[in-house]
Design goal:
The protein is an alpha+beta fold and about 130 residues long. The chain has a single domain, classed as 2-Layer Sandwich (Heat Shock Protein 90). The chain contains three helices and four strands, in the order ααββαββ. α1 packs antiparallel against α2 and α2 packs antiparallel against α3.
Length: about 130
């Protein structure tokens, strides 16, 4: 889990260098934090800790963050939907992570293969800062 904070710092630094607005940077850090925490807690659970890679790129008006790992495959669409309409006392703990990630980014893409592992691509549109 100690590496998750390094991923957040990496994203924050990359956002600053790319001229990304603070609110977009916050969303991206939170999405990366949640995805990487899920990998540590669930993906590699019961296994030796494995690699997690995080890359950052600005492609025109989009920020693309790719997270790679070699945990067992888990497609974000397979995450159960949280019961947001139920009182907190009736909900099981956790279960909001993938829902939150999907709210924070504009697009998620996932693929997995035995040779290269898993690849989660998170895309967030950025609005250029207005000079005024």
């Amino acid at each position: 889990m100690e590496n998750v904070s390094a991923f957040r710092a990496f994203v924050e630094d990359a956002c600053r260098r790319a001229g990304v607005d603070e609110s977009v940077c916050f969303d991206l850090k939170l999405a990366v934090d949640e995805a990487c925490s899920n990998l540590v807690v669930h993906g590699y659970k019961g296994r030796q800790p494995g690699p997690i890679g995080v890359s950052f790129a600005r492609e025109g008006d989009e920020i693309v963050i790719i997270i790679t790992d070699h945990a067992p495959p888990f497609h974000p669409d397979d995450a159960p939907l949280p019961r947001l309409d139920a009182p907190a006392s009736e909900r099981r703990p956790g279960g909001l992570g993938w829902h939150m990630i999907k709210q924070l980014v504009d697009r998620l893409e996932y693929d997995s293969d035995t040779e290269n592992g898993n690849r989660l691509r998170m895309v967030k549109k950025v609005v250029p800062l207005q000079n005024g």
